[in-house]
Amino acid sequence: MSVMSSGPTSHTYFSQRLRLHYVDWGNPSAPPLLMVHGGRDHCRNWDWLAERLRDRWHIIAPDLRGHGDSQWSTEGSYRMDNYVYDLAQLIHQQQLAPVTIIAHSLGGNISIRYSGIYPETVKRLVAIEGLGASPRMVQERAKQPLDERMRIWVDEQRKLAGRLPRRYPSVEEAFKRMQDENKHLSPERARHLTEHGVNQNEDGSFSWKFDNYVRSWPAYDMAVPEVEQLWSRITCPTLLVYGSESGASNPSVDGRARHLKNATVVSIDGAGHWVHHDQFETFYKLASDFIDAP
Fold first, then answer.
1. How far apart are CA 163 and CA 66, in angstroms?
2. What's the rounded Cα separation, in Å, for the pair 216 and 157?
């Protein structure tokens, strides 16, 4: 399926003095549907899904700070509370509540936390591998004292300060890198994601739009019991989607699903972390049936 020529329109909004970008697929009289991308991705990764749903939903897809066509953090710091605030501001400024959300990975983590903070504003939630690190990974990290985690973070920041964005001599070279990242991607999808995911530099080369600093996770975050308490506050029907070939831990197996009162966990065969690309038709049917339910 090719994405139609009459695609979305670009808009900006402000959050913590950053100019952030989102696309609007039109149909403003329809119920609002937010699509929130994952880390080192961009809002146009939802184009195929938006194309299918735009006739009955008002779809808005933001670029997270430091991603796509949104501004980068001047401090090079990307914390979850900042991301949650950005999402809250978009929903508030555009008066989207009650809103339905489909989100992936980092975007899912942000959306799930937002839904626990403002449960009355979310109608339905679909999150693809959006609960964050597995309990095992969290336990391993917790074994490191804060001073050690801070040292690691400081070292990462210093390295990133000297790391220049990788330059590709052509879009074709960046496209090949995109294909290497996910073997499930068709050439058509990989090229589309690449063309919307790079900027051309002054010397004619191409670099990914995301800020390299988004690679660095802060030394500390909300405590696990606090995050679990946010999960328990979510009142809307929630669909947690996982790929059977992904390295992510399934919450119905590791116990995290028990903290969400109204959640269903589905694992999709033949899919890795990018379920909505790897098994698009299966995911589309699953997600559309879920969000269209009365």
1. 15
2. 7
pTM beyond cutoff 0.90: yes
Which helix H or strand E contains 114, and what residues bound it?
helix 106-117
Two tokens at 105? Answer: 């990975």
Specify whether the CB–CB gap between 54 and 135 falls below 8 A. no
Q: Give the Cα separation of 216 and 137 in Å (integer).
A: 16
Block residue for tokens 């890795």: 272
Q: Which helix (H) or strand (E) holds 264?
A: strand 263-268
Pairing of strands 122-128, 238-243: parallel
Show Cβ contacts of residue 63 under 8 Å, excluding neighbours closer than 6 positions: 20, 21, 22, 37, 42, 43, 69, 70
Tokens representing residue 242 in the block = 């996982």
> 131, 256 in Cβ contact below 8 A?
yes
Name beta bridge partners: 127: 103, 240
Question: What is the rounded CA–CA span in Å between residue 67 and residue 262?
Answer: 31
Q: Domains plus CATH for the chain?
A: 9-163+213-292 (3.40.50.1820)
> What is the per-residue pLDDT across 95-141, written as a single tens digit (0 to 9) for each?
999 999 999 999 999 999 999 999 999 999 999 999 999 999 999 99
pLDDT tens for residues 239-267?
999 999 999 999 999 999 999 999 999 99
Bridge partners (DSSP) of residue 263 are 238
